[in-house]
Specification:
Blueprint (H helix, E strand, L loop, with lengths): L5 H10 L3 E4 L3 E2 L8 H10 L4 E4 L2 E2 L8 E3 L5 H6 L6 H12 L9 E2 L10 E4 L5 H4 L11 E3 L2 E6 L6 E5 L2 E3 L13 H6 E4 L9 H12 L4 E6 L3 H7 L9 H9 L4 E4 L6 E3 L4 E15 L2 E2 L5 E2 L2 E13 L5 E2 L11 H19 L3 E6 L4 E6 L11 H10 L4 H4 L3 E5 L8 H11 L2 H4 E8 L17 E8 L19 H10 L5
Helix pairs in contact: 4-10, 8-9
Bound molecules: flavin mononucleotide.
């Protein structure tokens, strides 16, 4: 059952007992009284339900209730693409990603039928401090737009990109180095987390090209859309391919788009909010503190600015807010499932022996093979897979700092099982590869920083935890483990005693 928009998805969660209305007052203002990070910790640690926050203290737009923890479990993430079981969802994602013949081009509908156009705010009337919700988290010094799929077009080829990137709002924000933000910045501008110099994302590539060509780059941010589009936007679809088409593939039918009012871009017709704008040709702004997905505050970052040209939204528009911190947090899994699907689909094209890829919330990549020992295609096959991950088409595999390859008898979701394989199948001097010139993950605090303030290169570690037959041994010692049926039988016998 594909969902038309985020509302249908929330209604489905509600019908499954997975959405709760919260009328208790909770503080979302900047400062010590803020309760949003603590709330996220509480509900995510308990694998808790999605919430609709109806009574936020210090909230600038109480007419727009805030949805929270929407994607907080592997199961709810699977539900965005009409699955329940996480592995089935990942395999569906990987399979459709790897086969563009299953994708569907989007359908453009008339603006008159697009709910996202019910209210239109034109450039002269824009005052972001009143028109866009502001929700602060923890010690962050700005409020961020976190539910936006961001659309741009390649200034050279016109090819579209849709990515899920966050944006900084300047209203009420504290400047990290003691300066202040101008009234113009607070009312009419946003900055985008597009790492463009050097480019680390596809929007970054578009912006780098636009700057080199001296061309303006238009941008549209569609907030809270059909969840399948969020999933596609978080996926590293190959550069030049269109995430809307991939979303159509995941959905099994075209997604519905509508043309923007002031820029030559298309957005999901069922979006709650749409913000249209143009990148400012030169302006960048320093922002921070910002809490990142590896669990640290970024003190200072520098990002390009966008001049907002138009806002449209639904009459009774709803907002989504999330934050990153030491995992778990709400959107862990909707960020990780696309990475797992992307790397799995890429690896399976290179090696059918790859059975599963699990990326842990701390971003360790575990690759499980369907063969091990003498049944591997050749000696040192585990190392071939390590290099294949680092040679991925997308940025995630390339930036994988710790990669572990295991055989079919190791559970890639269970750290105890993975640790057992490392402890009993790995000789560090021969079975670990240190790649000294890897690409760093942009938010890794242990990697050296480039001139734009984020890491570019770093070292990586690959652990080949496969059985070293034929590499070192003709045969391997037998594993001591009872068959599961026997364990189940004994459990039945001892029912009521244990
Ligand atoms: C809630 C959320 C926020 C994200 N924010 C950013 C961001 O600010 N910058 C970024 O480069 N990637 C961010 N990502 C990851 C990207 O969405 C993901 O890497 C995607 O593949 C990027 O699209 P691209 O491959 O077309 O660049 C975020 C993911 C999620 C789920």
């Amino acid at each position: 059952m594909p969902f038309k928009d985020m509302r249908e998805f929330l209604a489905h969660l509600d019908s499954q007992g997975q959405l709760k209305q919260v009328d208790v007052e909770l503080n979302c203002e900047i400062g010590e009284e803020n309760e949003m990070q603590a709330l996220m910790r509480l509900v995510c640690e308990q694998d808790g339900p999605a919430l609709m926050l109806n009574n936020l203290k210090g909230y600038n737009t109480p007419q727009h209730p805030v949805m929270f923890n929407v994607f907080g479990t592997r199961e709810r993430t699977a539900m965005t693409i009409d699955e329940i079981e996480p592995l089935t969802a990942k395999l569906k994602h990987a399979n459709i990603l790897g086969d563009a013949s299953k994708w569907h081009e989007p359908k453009i509908i008339d603006a008159a039928n697009a709910p996202c156009k019910e209210v239109v705010i034109e450039e002269a009337d824009i005052d972001l401090s009143k028109q866009l919700p502001l929700v602060w988290f923890g010690k962050e010094q700005a409020s961020y737009i976190t539910g936006g799929v961001v659309v741009t077009k390649d200034p050279e080829t016109g090819e579209r990109n849709v990515g899920w990137y966050r944006l900084t709002q300047f209203t009420g924000a504290e400047h990290p180095t003691g300066g202040s933000y101008t009234e113009e910045e607070q009312k009419k501008q946003l900055s985008v987390f597009c790492f463009w110099n050097p480019p680390m994302s596809h929007i970054g590539l578009h912006l780098a090209k636009a700057k080199a060509m001296g061309k303006p780059l238009e941008i549209a941010i569609a907030c809270q859309v059909d969840p399948v589009i969020h999933m596609a936007a978080a996926t590293g679809v190959p550069f030049g391919a269109d995430e809307y088409n991939f979303a159509g593939g995941l959905k099994g039918e075209p997604v519905e788009l509508v043309k923007c009012n002031t820029v030559d871009l298309e957005v999901p017709a069922g979006a709650e909010f749409v913000i249209e704008g143009v990148f400012h040709p030169d302006a960048e702004q320093t922002i921070g503190r910002h809490s990142n997905p590896v669990g640290y505050y970024d003190a200072i970052q520098v990002f390009p600015m966008v001049d907002v040209k138009c806002i449209t939204h639904r009459n009774d528009a709803q907002w989504y807010a999330t934050m990153e911190m030491v995992p778990p947090f709400d959107h862990n899994y909707i960020a990780l499932l696309p990475v797992e699907g992307e790397v799995l689909s890429d690896l399976q094209r290179k090696a059918p022996e790859v059975q599963d890829v699990v990326v842990t919330p701390n971003m360790t990549y575990v690759v499980q093979l369907n063969v091990d020992g003498a049944r591997k295609p050749h000696a040192e096959f585990g190392k071939y897979i390590l290099h294949a991950v680092w040679g991925s088409a997308g940025r995630w595999g390339r930036t994988a700092k710790i990669v572990i390859v295991v055989g079919p008898d190791v559970d890639p979701y269970d750290m105890d099982s993975i640790e057992w394989a490392i402890a009993t199948r790995v000789m560090p001097a021969t079975d670990i590869i240190i790649n000294e010139s890897g690409q760093a993950f942009v938010l890794d605090p242990s990697a050296p920083k480039g001139h734009h303030g984020f890491p570019v290169t770093g070292s990586q570690m690959g652990i080949d935890a496969t059985i070293k037959v034929p590499e070192r041994f003709a045969e391997y010692q037998e594993v001591s483990f009872p068959p599961q049926e026997k364990v189940d039988q004994v459990a039945v016998k001892l029912k009521g005693i244990l």
